[in-house]
Amino acid sequence: MAKKEAERFLIAGGEDKKLRARYDQLEPKEAFVAEANREGYNYTLEEFDDVLRESGDSFESFGNPRKRGIWWT
């Protein structure tokens, strides 16, 4: 069930530019997941890693300003 929460978060970021821009700046991944949990999503770092691995996405950032290719549309 919590993996569904991580997926819901990635979809929300794909739909909301402001959310995406704010999270693209967060490092490390632990802070990223902790902030999402503070905002009402409920998943662990391990569950988030599972979702990224299953979808073939990488948490790595690129560009200036920093961006991530994890967001789902």
Overview of the molecule:
- InterPro entries: Nif11.
- It holds the Pfam family Nif11.
- With 73 residues, the protein is mainly alpha-helical.
- It has one domain.
- The chain has four helices and two strands.
- Strands 1-2 form a two-stranded antiparallel sheet.
- Helix 1 packs across helix 2 and helix 1 packs across helix 4.
- It starts with a helix and ends in a 5-residue tail after the last strand.
- The model has no long low-confidence stretch (mean pLDDT 96).
- Gross morphology is globular
The secondary structure category is: mainly alpha
Unreliable segments (pLDDT under 50, ≥5 consecutive)?
A: none
How many DSSP helices? 4
Total DSSP E strands: 2
Number of domains: 1
What strand order characterises the main sheet? Answer: 1-2
Strand content: 5-15%
The proportion of residues forming helix, as a percent range, comes to 55-70%
Radius of gyration: 11 Å
Major beta-sheet overview: 2 strands, antiparallel
Average pLDDT figure: 96
The quaternary organization reads as single chain
Order of helices and strands: HHHHEE
**End-to-end gap:** 20 Å
Domain Nif11: 1-48
Pfam family, one: Nif11
InterPro entries: Nif11
Protein name: Nif11 domain-containing protein
